[in-house]
Amino acid sequence: xxxxxxxRAFLRSVSAFGAAALFLSAMSEGATAQDDRTxxxxxxxxxxxGANAGGAGITTIPNYRLWVEDVNAAGGLLLPDxxxxxxxxxxxxxxxxxxxxxxxxxxxxxxxxxxxxxxxxGTGFNLAIAPLMARAGYPQIAVTAVTDRAPEFVxxxxxxxxxxxxxxxxxxxxxxxxxxxxxxxxxxxQVAMISVADGFGIDLVxxxxxxxxxxxxxxxxxxxxxxxxxxxxxxxxxxxxxxADSFVAFSYPPHTFALMQQSQVVDYSPPLFYLGxxxxxxxxxxxxxENVEGVMSLGGIDPNNPQNAAYRExxxxxxxxxxxxxxxxxxxxxxxxxxQAIERVGLDREAVTQELATGTxxxxxGTITLENNQLRDLWWVGQWQGGTFVGVAxxxxxxxxxxxxxxxxxx
Amino acid sequence: xxxxxAFILAAAALAGLAxxxxxxxxxxxxxxxxxxxxxxxxxxxxMFSGPTRYVSLAxxxxxxxxxxxxxxxxxxxxxxxxxxxxxxxGLTVALIVGLSTLRLAGIYFVxxxxxxxxxxxxxxxxxxxxxxxxxxxxxFLPFEGIxxxxxxxxxxxxxxxxxxxxxxxxxxxxxxxxxxxEVVAAHAGINVSRAKLMLFALSATIITLVGAIQAPxxxxxxxxxxxxxxxxxxxxxxxxxxxxxxxWGPALGAVPLFLLFEWLSANFPNYFSIILGIFFICxxxxxxxxxxxxxxxxxxxxxxVPPEDKERSGAA
Amino acid sequence: xxxxLQITHLRKRFGGLVAVKDVSxxxxxxxxxxxxxxxxxxxxxxxxxxxxxxxPTAGEITLRGVRISRLRxxxxxxxxxxxxxxxxxxxxxxxxxxxxxxxxxxxxxxxxGPDARDLAEEKLAFVGLGGRGGENVAxxxxxxxxxxxxxxxxxxxxxxxxxxEWLAGLTPSELQIGIDLVRRLQGAGMSVLLVEHxxxxxxxxxxxxxxxxxxxxxxxxxxxxxxxDPGVVAAYLGDGxx
Amino acid sequence: MLIDTLITGLVAGxxxxxxxxxxxxQFGISRxxxxxxxDTIIAACFASFILFSVFGLSPILALMIxxxxxxxxxxxxxxxxMRPLVARAPNAGxxxxxxxxxxxxxxxxxxxxxxxxxxxxxxGYTFLNTPVDLFGTIVAANRLLALFLALVFxxxxxxxxxxxxxxxxxxxxxxxxxxxxxxxxDINRAxxxxxxxxxxxxxxxxxxxxxxxxxxxxxxxxxxxxxxxVVILGGKGSLTGALIGGLLLGLVETFVAAYIDPxxxxxATYTIFLLLLILRPTGFFGQxx
Lengths: 411, 316, 242, 289
Hints:
The complex is a heterotetramer. Chain A is an alpha/beta fold.
């Protein structure tokens, strides 16, 4: 390349950077004038595309849309002075990339200057945006983040809230349910356990191993499989070859569906059959009809709770599909908490954060009070009973159904 | 001397870019971080793939290695040492991969590099699950966007300077010769494998550093997050858009494309994939040699064909 | 005196096909030797083995006593062997001067910097392309591309030059220019192995010839004698050449 | 135990073979490395799902609609997008690289359309999820169907390609595209036919896979990757190779899961894949050189 061409190229690139700088300088002004507001601006960035779209599409996006629709149909968010302001939504796609999620939140906070930011889907993404949310003073009501380190995160980011518990909660509750069933003679003390090689699966299995051991169970099969696994024939055959009465899989939706299908094929129906994420999805019930009976998983609902029933009906009506039985209602409830906090203290974010931490809220998931910024009152174990996925543990929680073991065989 | 002028201008631009974030809000800085990150990725990618025409999809493999190294070591080693370790690991992997693959040509190299990223991801996962017993890792480094931006900007300057220096060096000439005709290059006395290996390793090391520098921004790191294959493809298309054989080409492709993606995902979040796909197809169709070559082609008096265009349209 | 290039019992097999069987000959210092034979007789395979493009199945090649038959092509080039190709292979994204510069920079003496540019210009001038270094190789005519390729080969300052049908496809006047060029090289003391079909050129340039057929040497000796050899005539006629 | 693993592996491999055959034809004959292959499969999954759940059409009957549709659409895509690339490419290498880039764009377009139409949710239905006893090993009928269709389509196509005039034409294009015109072969038409045929095979794979696997709009790349591995294993353009490579991949994954560690199945696959690329890039059944 000759010198002149080089210089021309250089000048061109300088001008390109100049154009970019112009674009950026627009960033430094941003929208101001919050007076005379006609709406409450609420923004969120979730995975509309990419690898996480499947999870976000079931739990997060429908509930965000449903809530906005519900609130705006009622005339908007109620403020302490009795006036109502409609919600204006700013929606971004994080494309299942952490970097995009971080930048989208920066944009929502400093460019769009929204009033509130709803959290993204997934543990990793909620952690990625946590420092920003804390720094910008936004309450972060993380739902789809299962982490045992929530107490530590609350200390680090005091405006963060963690609503779905930690891996250990689910595992120890399961171990307790199993111990009770064994003592009642429904199952023996051997367990075949598999888990997906991903953050969630590892968290649960790491907590399950000691919990099961402490409860006096013997792990006769314990394997970890990669996320990309689609054929579980070998695993199921080996589990079936053991004498274990319990099969526990800490799996993601694709695995959960495949495990369910393939265990029916090989006629593997142990007395206790526990699957991971996805067993509470509507499509799980559609695909397996009455065979879902007795299958256990995370989450659940209280079938006699009228608010929950009303929520599920609305979800079906507006979204056109039933809600899933685990995180959906919590997601919707988290928004109701925000809504009620605003109703009590207005749009001041600090006050809302304070109210979220200390207040008591009436939601679709029942009455909620957070402990140390965490929701502890959750269904850790659920079971399909009579076509509904009901919560069975904690057994002493109000509305708990009794676990029914052994599970009936496949039809 | 025009070179001197160019250097003064470049230094001034660099100084301007360095102080720019002081006047920007967090989102503006976030944009600069993303943009600069891709400028470095695309430039480093083009450093090897531009002259040799070996299309590498291993970008994310090295990017992920960098990010993971920081996640593993950030709490046990001082930060500069962590970066050094990331460099060393990236370099080692690049040398091993380079030694075993540089015999592969054309599509087989593309497929290999694509598979490599997946293999490394599987191995990291397996290691974490079976040896360390955790999968996600946390990075609590006290860096804000602006610190990451300054590091990336410095790396961008170094990368462009290296590219410029290589393009004028014996090595640069060797690579262009290799890209044209490996047999002729070898018979002219060029150690083809060594030239390719050196550049591949250098390019991979820079890419590793980008991953290492950007990782603290995400706080939480797991294989699915850092080995996201889209990064490889975006890097590739940015470099192609600007022109992979020019010094400023990749940067010139990365900046507008990055801003375009940002605009699309903000304004058409639901149609992002479709528009991105169509745009990708259009670039391959209408700008196979990049914008710079296109502009130069338009300016060039008729009849004079720039060399790269000839390669595509002319006789084999 | 040990000969400059010495080939002994060279053999090359591709799968089931033996392309070169037991070939031995030598080229002395400053000598131009013709390597003749009908198409497919194994000439280019021999050339490829000398330059390192192919690895011999058996046999040895030495240059001034150094065994080069197991080396990579770039190492062989740096030992002083340069070649041209049967079909010209210019490096299209490089200018004419840069094409030559490649050999200067990586050849025997590794020239780089301003003096390398001067040397490139010098080599181009030698082959008759003086002042055209800045041009794009695509703009050169066929003969000029051949000249450029010769300049590129000469730029590494080889001790042995391998010309693979370098004179083919030239017009009679161009041919004369080409023959004169090679003669000047010989005058400068360079050894040349010439694979050629144009008998006038062979007669004009080579004192000695090696003739191959079906992978074997069928004649070897002074050019005039060899070309009258009934076996050689038969081989060419059998192949359709006369 | 060994027989069990063997049969499970072969049945799993049937899916891989079916998924890979379309790609190998497109790559081998049309010289198009189609990265959107997996997304074509997913599109067929959704088509079959709609036909099943909305129109109550059995997936077996859906094949009659979806497979021809796959052919016609792929033919159109070839005319619209691939043909100009083929026309401008100076050599096979440039075309292969161009095709990777352009089909990567296509991948996003198909994925985007599916996302807009169906959202990002997991989708699926059950069909033929009944046990079949195969020499004492229980396998799912729908997966067995995949193996069966892979064998039927594979062997039929192998026969057609090697015995009929039309097949010879396609093979000639695959082996020596530069010489094909000399014997009066219309390369463009042959390449288009092969590309469309690949699309039809992808559609077949999609319909079959949808019977037993839940899918989302974004998981196409997983199928592409698997198909790519099989194609490299078997050698590009070789249907026999794809068939055997697919079965082999199923066996490798099953044996690693059974005898080594289920956590290493994918790592083992990629290791074999990469080693093969280095040692024998033409695959087990590819043309040498």
